[in-house]
Design a protein that fits this description.
208 residues; mainly beta; six-stranded mixed β-sheet; 21 strands; 2% helix; rod-shaped
C-alpha cells in the first residue's frame, strides 16, 4: 500500500502544499475468488455469478471494461439483485465455453483480476423416456424425455438422438424438466438401432 494512500503533496523552493487529500483515488485490482455453477437463463445464455473483491465500485457497467472466460469476452455483466458493492458480479457466458475455463475481470482502469475461478455447468441428465419402447417398423414416432437441467426454450436444444437416430424435430414440454423427440422412425423388423438402447441430448453445448 502507499505510505499515504490518497494524499498529494508538492514542495516549490521550500514552500510545501502539505498533504492534500481528495485529489487522487486509490483503485485496487479486482479479484475473482469463485464462480457459481452456471444457470441456463430465458435468453438462452448460461450465466454465472462471480464472487470476489473490488469487482466493481459503484456501477458494473461503467467500472468493468471486460470479463473474459477462457480468453473470450463475456456477452454481458451486471450487478446481481441485492448484491453488496463490488463483491458479486453476474456474467452471461459466451456460447461454446467449456467447463474449466478461467474467468477474469478487467476494470475500467485496465487492471486485470487475479483469478482462481473457473466455469462449471450443471449435469444435464435424462431419467426416463415415454413410451419406453418403439415398435419395429413404426414411423413418425414421438417420445417424451424427462430429466433435470434440460432445455428452457426450443432453441436451447442442440440435438436429440434415440437409439443413435437423430430426431427430426424437438420441443420443450416442461421447462427444464421435459422435452419431446418428434418424427422418429423405428427400425424395420429385420433392422437394428445404430445404438440400441441409448438416448442422448445436448442442451446449449452440454450433453447428457
Amino acid at each position: 500500500a502507499w505510505p499515504s494512500a490518497v494524499s498529494v503533496e508538492a514542495t516549490i523552493r521550500g514552500q510545501s502544499t502539505g498533504e492534500v487529500h481528495g485529489l487522487l483515488e486509490g483503485v485496487p485490482a479486482p479479484r475473482v475468488q469463485a464462480a457459481s455453477v452456471a444457470v441456463l437463463g430465458p435468453s438462452g445464455l448460461w450465466s454465472t455469478v462471480l464472487s470476489g473483491t473490488a469487482l466493481w465500485r459503484s456501477n458494473p457497467e461503467a467500472d468493468v471494461a471486460d470479463v473474459t472466460v477462457g480468453g473470450v469476452g463475456a456477452m454481458s455483466w451486471r450487478r446481481p439483485v441485492g448484491a453488496t458493492m463490488g463483491l458479486l458480479l453476474e456474467v452471461d457466458l459466451p456460447p461454446g465455453i467449456a467447463a474449466g475455463s478461467a474467468v477474469h475481470v478487467v476494470s475500467s482502469a485496465g487492471l486485470v483480476s487475479a483469478s482462481n475461478a473457473t466455469v462449471s455447468f450443471p449435469r444435464v441428465a435424462l431419467e426416463s423416456v415415454s413410451p419406453d419402447y418403439v415398435l419395429a417398423g413404426a414411423r413418425n414416432i414421438s417420445v417424451v424425455l424427462r430429466g433435470t437441467n434440460l432445455a428452457i426454450r426450443d432453441d436451447d436444444i442442440d440435438m436429440v438422438r434415440v437409439g443413435g437416430v437423430a430426431c427430426r424435430s424437438w420441443r420443450v414440454v416442461e421447462a427444464g424438466a421435459a422435452m419431446s423427440c418428434e418424427g422418429l422412425d423405428g427400425p424395420g423388423a429385420s433392422e437394428a438401432w445404430p445404438s440400441a438402447v441409448s438416448v442422448e441430448a445436448t442442451i446449449r453445448g452440454q450433453s447428457t
